[in-house]
Amino acid sequence: MAETLDQKLGALAQISQRKLTDILDRIAGTKDFIIHPDLIKPLERIMGVSILRSHGVDKIYKLEKSAPTPCTSNQRVFFIPSDMITLKYVCDKITSEISSSGSERSYHIVFVSGILGCLIQLLEEEGIYGKVRVYPFHWELIRLDSRLLSIEYPTFFKNVFLEGDHSYLSCIARSIWSLQMLLGKPRTTFIQGKLSHLVHEMVNMLSDTVQKPEREDCDIACFIIVDRSVDYVTPLLTSATYTGLLDEVFGIRSGTVEIKGETINLSSADEVYSEVNTRHFSDVYSFLGAKTKELNEELNAFKRSHNMALQEMKAFINQQLQSLMGLKKSLSTHITACEAIIDKMADLFEALITTEHNIIQCQAKRENVTYIEETMAMESADKFRTLRLMGLLSLAQGGLLSEEVADLKSQFLHAHGYENLPCFLNLEKLGILTTQAGLLPHDLKGVALANRVVQAVMLAQKLHLLPETSMDPHGLRNPKDMSYVFSGAYIPIICQLVNFIIKLDTPLEEMAKLIPNCSVFLDSNSGRKPLRSFLVYFLGGVTFAEVAAFRLLEKLTGSRIVIAGTTITNGNQIVKACL
Amino acid sequence: MESKTELLNEAVSLGDGNAILTVVLFLAKSLKKTLFYQLLRSHTEAVNHYVNYLGTRMQLQEMTDILQVKLSKIILQMKQFSIACQSPQKRLQKLKTCLRNHFAESKDKIFVDNFIKLLEWQQSIGTAELEGKSVIDSLAYTCEHHWNDNKSSATSPYMLAQHHRINRRQFQWVALNALAKNSSWNEIETLLVTKGWLGGKRVNAILPMDQVVIQLHKLKAPNNVLHIYFELIDDIDKRMCVAKKLQCHKEVIDVSV
Question: Domain Vps16 C-terminal spans what residues (chain B) (predicted)?
Answer without folding.
Answer: 1-191
